[in-house]
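[job 0412] stage=fold_complex status=start
inputs:
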Amino acid sequence: MSDERWILHVDMDAFYAAIEQRDHPAYRGKPLMVGSPPDRRGIIATCSYEARKFGVHSAMPSRTAGKLCPHGIFVPPDMKKYSSESKLIMAILGDFTPQLEPISVDEAFLDVSSVRNLLGDAVNIARRIKERIHRERNLTASIGVAPNKFLAKLASDLEKPDGLTVITDENKLAILAPLSVGKLWGVGEVTRQRLESHGLKTIGDIRKAGVPSLRSLLGNQAEHLHQLSLGNDAREVETESNAKSIGSENTFDVDTADEKTLRKTLLEQADEIASELRSENTAARTITLKLRYSDFTTITRRITLDSPTQDDVTIYDRALALFHAEKTGDKKIRLIGISTSGFAPPASQLDLFDTSSEKKQRLAKAVDTIRAKHGTKSIGRTVE
Amino acid sequence: MKLRFAKEKFLDGLQQVQNVVSTRSTLPILSNVLIRAQKGGVTMTTTDLDVGVRCPIDAEVVREGAVTLPARRLFTIVRELAHSDVELDVDDKNVASIQSGGSHFKIVGLPEGDFPQLPKLSGAKSFTMEQKTLKDALKKTSYAMSNDETRFVLNGILLSLKDDKLVVVATDGRRLGLVELDMDLPKDTKGELLLPSKTVSEVQRLLKDKGSVTVHFTENQISFDMDGTLLVSKQVEGVYPNYRQVIPPEAKERISLERETFHQALRRASLLVSEKNNAVKLHFTKNNLAITANSPDVGESRESLAINYKGPEIAIGFNPAFLMDPLRNLENDEIFFELTDDLSPGVIKINAPFLYVIMPMRVG
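[job 0412] stage=fold_complex status=done
writing structure:
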């Protein structure tokens, strides 16, 4: 069975809070909130497990957390420290396999299929990873072990903290069946509501519904979600070297809520990305918006297009729509960025209402030519 | 309230209304069905605040009254009953007793007064047509609605009323289905009515092959009265794109094709399209149509059909799913495919007031 795949999802437990508790013995065993103080606007980035007992969770407004847990300790986030800690953890993971895909500061996928013979079975590898993280960094991680990424991520979440959960082809259907459809990868709030309003509440319901009846609800997504409901997911662990995204992000010198500034930044980013897509002769189907607020909470929102694009205005429009959907209001933003993924040959499907697509392509080509001669800043769009 | 009814009649009624039931936990009463018993008869009502349905059911009213009960639970209980004769008795605390044969259930309801009323369409205009005609028009077009939430005005169907014509349009920006019906509209009846996709699927389910439907509409609401069964819905807010301008005036080549043969051939060809390369190529040469698909990492397919074609050679790519959608939903044996060149829209027509515009895909 050498073609069997084994994927690990390593998820650090209450990462920011755990680091603070490790470094400050006084915080240990106490409810600790990393984020804005309770007397100010802003939210909790992470909280310790002691705080979770009071009902506090990440992304909760600090004021609410302060009410739920009045004796809790609130500390501001120290992103520099967390990010260097993250590098050390990733280095440990990298010792086990080069097939490593970090997905955020405290989470990564590992494909251990090829190193199994060398290092023992996947569960054994997971156990050794946990041991090393604990011994060398004095932190705990929860690891999910499964035949694919979707199940591995699901597994790591089942027995937090300090968990090690294995999902196999044999038990996957039983584990998936009672879980909420919201656990399916790609089901956001809107899709979840739509599914639930049609009586599809659990992953088991999705499986039983079958592709044809899902298609009327979900369109192109139907097949994909049905596969997930069966516990199938063919996505590869994507290492840095075959990174499959092209993106751009900016951190502001001064945090801002000014929509014009944000729009201008998005437009520049969209422009830069579109240029790069064109120079690589490819197009992207997925557009992801990343926002980091003043309190360092970071969110990403993505949308998958019907057909791949390499057009700056399309990328900008979709990113802006994602931004508006967040209703950030006067919340100050520290970082904004767009990334694109899901590459395919440049859009071949023509649009009925967009007869200018041929013109747009010619314009883009002209812009690329001018830039090649006179530099990137020589020509560009503006927001009004 | 006290009712006696036959299990099947009751289930029929519940089936009509229960799709609309909301699962939004913020307003639990929206998960309930309102049952109202009066001398004139018994009705069931559900709503999710966007769409509401009310239908009459056959039941004997022993005592008048009204109650709201959890719709899905009620449905499963009644479905499982062993006897056909069922008695529903509701006390003044909204607790319902269901008695049938040896089975007895008590379920807790919520008061009628908390249930949101279906909106009354005041000052509405209206028109009436055959249910079958509307059902058929929706079937021929609704598959072309968009699922893309960022193009929300396209997430539904347009009913355009003007000059004694009803035009039913759906599009997702890449293809467009349209049915144009001659109507005898009340004088000066004009309107652009935009139905959300949920409303479209509910109306499609409720429409029958006989009887008539009366449509009432205001600026932002619409209702369908189908022989006593009433559906009321919000309209999609926004302006539908100018669909007229994307219908090509006249095509250079009009090709007659056997619908089923063409459909089958496309189905086979589409077995070899992939996510990366999801086009099939139609290659028209003298009296021949070759349908090919190839995906570098999957394989390729090729199929030839003998057709009657005398025009110039055309090679054009399409998303096979978009080509098959109308073929699956039409009944005519013969369709006409009109083409201009490889980058201009194709049009599928039949010998009836229907057309389908489809944009090609660029193929290498």
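[job 0412] summary: The helical segments of chain B are 7-17, 71-80, 131-141, 197-206, 259-269, 320-329.
[job 0412] exit 0
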